[in-house]
Amino acid sequence: MTWHIKHFNELTTIELYRILQERTNIFVVEQNCPYPEVDGKDLNCYHLYRLENEQITAYARLLPAGIAYTQASIGRVIVPATHRGKGYAGELFARAINFIQQELGETEIKIQAQEYLCPFYGSYGFEAISESYLEDGIPHVDMLLNQRLEPLGVS
Q: What Gene3D superfamilies does the entry give (predicted)?
């Protein structure tokens, strides 16, 4: 089991295929939400993922400032159903924040959170900056982190 972070241009075709497959499985199929999963933003993003037995067990798309918002962002956060409850989401999110703050030099991170996950994101210092709204039929809240967190000792 290993963690990887790669810019889009560094991904192999197999890695890209696995990422898009898992994102589609969760956001389109599991959540029964037909929408354009491949939205053109991936090309300028970093992709953070955990592999175990050649399967993606956690993934997040890291968007530099100016791609989706004026701030950096974290999106497409997933843990496949077979790997939930193992702490991968927490480690994934901590690694994502760490990369954006340490490697990209950003302190503000904006996310579009599914409403039921606000307490999870809030535990990392994110605060709601919008009322709840429907995005593709799912309640969401915009949240912002505008403080530097202590760097993680992760490799």
A: 3.40.630.30
